[in-house]
Amino acid sequence: MEYMSQEGYDELVAELQHMVNVELPAVRDAIAEARDKGDLSENFEYHAAKREQGKLLSRISFKQKVLENARVIDKSRLKSDTVGLLSKIKITNLANKCSMNYTIVNPHEADLHSGKISIKSPIAKALLGKKAGEEVMVKVPAGLLKFRLDSVEL
């Protein structure tokens, strides 16, 4: 079971609908067009379109399975004083005094550029259940980092 925000669920549904209603018909048209060009054994366009169709069908199947197992979280039932899924946090790297703001989200919603980190990331795992003011050591690929949790909110 995958817990996610309503926003993440809606984005996933929209992405799946786009793949099924727009991308898949375009790939099928490309296959039909390539098939009309003659000998399929040496037809590069046909083989490329079939490969693309296979990739697309695989992505569609994956997204469908994610949606089948998805559960939208009711934010009103979450604790707002400890770090958990959908928490908005502000942390400070104690080594360089750099502050960062993140929202902890489901891995399918993670996007570092928009400040959303996966709940399965090393930083989020180390912060789960912590309250504002606590300090944590996080083992990341670059080594050990020490963070202070400045604030937690929903």
Task: State the CATH architecture of the largest domain.
Answer: Roll
Query: What is the CA–CA distance across the termini?
Result: 22 Å
State the domain count. 2
Binned strand content? 25-35%
What's the number of extended β-strand segments? 7
CATH fold name of the largest domain = Chitinase A, domain 3
Choose one word for the global shape. elongated
Mean pLDDT: 89
Low-confidence stretches: none
Count of helix runs: 3
* Largest sheet entry: 5 strands, mixed
Order of helices and strands: EHHEEEEHEE
Rg, alpha carbons: 22 Å
Helices and strands: which structural class?
A: alpha/beta
Helical fraction equals: 25-40%
CATH class of the largest domain: Alpha Beta
Domain Transcription elongation factor GreA/GreB N-terminal: 3-72
Protein name: Transcription elongation factor GreA
Keywords: DNA-binding, Elongation factor, Protein biosynthesis, Transcription, Transcription regulation
GO biological process, one term: DNA-templated transcription elongation
Structure, described:
There is one protein chain. It contains 3 helices and 7 strands. By secondary structure, it is of the alpha/beta class. The protein has 2 domains: 1-70, Transcription elongation factor, GreA/GreB, N-terminal domain (Helix Hairpins); 74-151, Roll (Chitinase A, domain 3), CATH 3.10.50.30. The strands form 2 sheets. The protein has a 5-stranded mixed sheet with strand order 5-4-3-7-6. The radius of gyration is 22 Å and the shape is elongated. The two termini are 22 Å apart.
